[in-house]
């Protein structure tokens, strides 16, 4: 995304070019241009720009993409952690 | 089927303003189902959206003057992006709503137009396999729908790219402030009492003000200044505005007379508070990854806790407490 980049070398995104059938969905669903099409196949371009939303993996018809997608906000993750340890309230947190 | 207007008035604007401030945010819901905009015929396009009232209003306003079918999914009053993350704006709900509205009998084609940010919850291949409708991801912003529809359903580069402009960041801040009041008001009250009892009224006011300013530096200042603050880490960005606040407070409140321990306490605690607040803002941004936030929390939260603990000890040494 122009002007905004998050931490480097943390993203869990993995792409298996061998499996790719070139349907073109991953570049279309990615809001950060992490993928592009070259020679009839997808190419992983800007891995560090991935926000791990999981849209590419979910839409890939041959499961060539893997990513640990999920809630990415600190308070949501603190709530998750509290619940895992039996300390938190279910369904708390202000986020929609 | 309900026919809806594309003109929104003061009522909707007031509603949007209220939810931005967190008022009645959980009752801002539209019944899911199929709606008609204008006089759509069987070959007119089907646009899919969430049942959050603000989303629904933005989409129908964008489709002013057109004949379009609007398929509203049950996302329990949550916007497309967050609902896709939770899976309620998802493959199952698209298939369910297509079936329950008998969409296949209403329209002659088999195409659905979805927002790009909905793709985190919807699998186009699975929707096609399960209900026979093809999913076309159109644009990120509803405002681009007219250009997409008129341009032969082609997503231009600009339509598919996220932005996070000053204005887009600004509108997120009110509700963050309201949500922060839950912990900020009690914490500021406690600091005020402790300060007032041990050091007199001015000390109490200064301590409550110090905390409130640090929270604002993290909740409002850092998000607004986001692209200009150093570092990629949100915690460090927040620590920067918190540090600036502690210097500003030192100058305004004549920090020269506080003594070294109290000054050190302010330098430790205030950036820690604002760093925490800005780290929380990652939940509002469209570019931070879960793995990145995890890393920041693993490194940052212990540091913040230690800073605040040390600040407490320094305050005791400095004789404030």
SSE layout:
The complex is a heterodimer of chains A (96) and B (321).
Chain A: E1 14-15, H1 25-29, E2 35-38, E3 41-44, H2 55-59, E4 65-66, H3 74-84
Chain B: E1 2-4, H1 10-20, E2 33-37, E3 46-49, H2 53-62, E4 68-72, H3 80-86, H4 91-100, H5 103-106, E5 111-114, H6 124-131, E6 134-137, H7 145-150, H8 166-170, H9 173-199, H10 201-224, H11 234-252, H12 260-280, H13 290-317
Parallel strand pairs in B: 1-2, 3-4, 5-6
Antiparallel strand pairs in B: 2-4
Helix pairs in contact in B: 4-6, 9-10, 10-11, 10-12, 11-12, 12-13
Average pLDDT figure of chain B: 93
CATH class of the largest domain in chain B: Alpha Beta
- Fraction of residues in H or I helices of chain A: 10-25%
What's the gyration radius of chain B in Å? 25 Å
Mean pLDDT of chain A: 87
**What quaternary form is this?**
heterodimer
pLDDT < 50 runs, ≥5 residues of chain A: 91-96
Number of helices of chain B: 13
**Largest β sheet strand count, sense and barrel closure of chain B:** 4 strands, mixed
Q: Characterize the main sheet of chain A.
A: 2 strands, antiparallel
Give me the strand/helix succession of chain A. EHEEHEH
Portion in helices of chain B:
55-70%
Instruction: Find the CATH topology of the largest domain in chain B.
Output: Rossmann fold
Coarse morphology of chain B: elongated
Summarize the largest interface: chains and residue counts: A-B, 41 and 50 residues
User: What CATH architecture label of the largest domain in chain B applies?
Assistant: 3-Layer(aba) Sandwich
> Strand arrangement, largest sheet of chain B?
1-2-4-3
Distance between the termini of chain B: 67 Å
DSSP E strands of chain B, number: 6
The neighbouring-strand order within the major sheet of chain A is 1-4
**Strand proportion of chain A:** 5-15%
Short description, anyone?
The complex is a heterodimer of chains A (96) and B (321). Chain A has helices at residues 25-29, 55-59, 74-84; strands at residues 14-15, 35-38, 41-44, 65-66.
């Amino acid at each position: 995304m122009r002007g905004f980049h998050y931490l480097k070398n943390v993203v869990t995104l993995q792409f298996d070019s061998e499996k790719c059938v070139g349907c073109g969905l991953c570049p279309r669903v990615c809001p950060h241009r992490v993928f592009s099409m070259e020679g009839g196949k997808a190419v992983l371009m800007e891995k560090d720009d991935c926000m791990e939303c999981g849209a590419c993996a979910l839409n890939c018809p041959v499961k060539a993409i893997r990513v640990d997608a999920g809630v990415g906000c600190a308070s949501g993750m603190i709530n998750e952690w509290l619940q895992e340890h039996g300390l938190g309230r279910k369904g708390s947190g202000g986020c929609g | 089927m309900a026919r809806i207007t594309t003109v929104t008035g003061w009522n909707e604007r007031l509603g949007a303003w209220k939810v931005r401030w967190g008022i009645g945010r959980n009752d801002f819901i539209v019944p899911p189902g199929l709606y008609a905009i204008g006089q759509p015929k069987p070959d007119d396009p089907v646009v899919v959206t969430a049942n959050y009232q603000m989303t629904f209003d933005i989409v129908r306003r964008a489709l002013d003057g057109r004949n379009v079918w609007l398929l509203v999914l049950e996302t329990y009053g949550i916007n497309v992006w967050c609902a896709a993350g939770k899976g309620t704006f998802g493959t199952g709900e698209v298939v369910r709503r297509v079936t329950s509205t008998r969409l296949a009998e209403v329209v002659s084609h088999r195409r659905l137009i979805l927002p790009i940010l909905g793709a985190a919850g919807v699998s186009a291949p699975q929707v096609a396999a399960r209900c026979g409708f093809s999913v076309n991801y159109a644009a990120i912003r509803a405002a681009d729908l007219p250009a997409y529809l008129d341009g032969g359903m082609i997503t231009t580069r600009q339509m598919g790219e996220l932005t996070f402009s000053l204005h887009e960041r600004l509108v997120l801040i009110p509700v963050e402030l309201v949500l922060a009041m839950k912990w900020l008001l009690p914490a500021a009250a406690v600091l005020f009492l402790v300060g007032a009892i041990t050091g007199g009224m001015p000390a109490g006011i200064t301590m409550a003000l110090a905390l409130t300013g640090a929270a604002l530096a993290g909740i409002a200042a850092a998000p607004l200044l986001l692209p200009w603050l150093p570092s990629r880490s949100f915690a460090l960005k927040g620590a920067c505005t918190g540090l600036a606040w502690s210097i500003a407070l030192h100058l305004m409140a004549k920090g020269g007379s506080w003594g070294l321990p109290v000054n050190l306490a302010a330098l430790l605690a205030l950036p820690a508070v604002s760093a925490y607040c800005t780290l929380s803002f990652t939940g509002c941004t469209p570019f931070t990854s879960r793995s990145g936030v995890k890393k920041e929390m693993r490194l940052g939260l212990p540091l913040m806790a230690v800073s605040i603990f040390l600040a407490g000890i320094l305050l005791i040494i400095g004789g404030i407490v």
